[in-house]
Task: inverse folding
């Protein structure tokens, strides 16, 4: 099992980790628009492991049409701060050290505290932002992580990507997020935030699941 969390003052929103709150849709962070999408993407351990490796090597972002650049892992030993279980309850902090993994292009895998740049277009919407990995979960039946905005985005907030391999052998992929509009056009037209989020979620799904290609 590997669980990691990293938070500091550089993210541009206050409700760090709130994508794991069970009542996110009912009580989102102030001025934020919440989102929750979940799909079955197959069944079995092989499907779960393959999807997990793809997720932790940035395929959800890259195959969704976003460029992943300037990936900077956290310096020093990773610190596991407040992590969250499946019901959104905090887990006591622990310390751990893990070998850094790299994909075929030499890009570091997802790691708690990693900062990176995402660039691209989502239809008519921008997806250019600096983000930070807030937490990482690698367990026997659960793999995922969350990204929080640091700056330069049209919205401020967090999105999490979780894979669950349930006892009935089904594998589910869930994307949860909350977005507070930052750019003027998004503040004036909040529906653009929802449109952008729906398009992102569908792209992430197509990137992770061969069933939706």
Result:
């Amino acid at each position: 099992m590997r669980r990691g969390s990293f938070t500091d003052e550089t993210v541009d929103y206050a409700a760090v980790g709130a994508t794991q709150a069970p009542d996110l849709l009912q009580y989102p962070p102030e001025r934020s628009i919440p989102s929750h999408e979940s799909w079955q993407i197959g069944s079995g351990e092989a499907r779960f492991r393959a999807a997990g490796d793809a997720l932790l090597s940035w395929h959800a972002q890259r195959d969704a049409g976003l460029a992943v650049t300037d990936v900077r892992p956290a310096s020093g030993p990773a610190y596991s701060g407040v992590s969250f279980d499946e019901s959104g309850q905090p887990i006591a902090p622990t310390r751990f050290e893990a070998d850094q993994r790299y994909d075929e292009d030499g890009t570091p895998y997802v790691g708690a505290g990693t900062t990176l740049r995402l660039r691209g277009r989502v239809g008519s919407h921008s997806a250019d932002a600096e983000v930070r990995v807030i937490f990482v979960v690698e367990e026997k039946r659960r793999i995922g992580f969350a990204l929080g905005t640091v700056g330069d985005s049209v919205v401020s907030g967090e999105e999490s990507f979780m894979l669950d391999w349930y006892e009935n052998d089904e594998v589910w992929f869930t994307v949860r997020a909350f977005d507070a509009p930052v750019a003027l056009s998004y503040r004036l037209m909040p529906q653009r935030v929802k449109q952008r989020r729906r398009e992102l979620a569908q792209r992430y799904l197509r990137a992770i699941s061969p069933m939706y290609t």
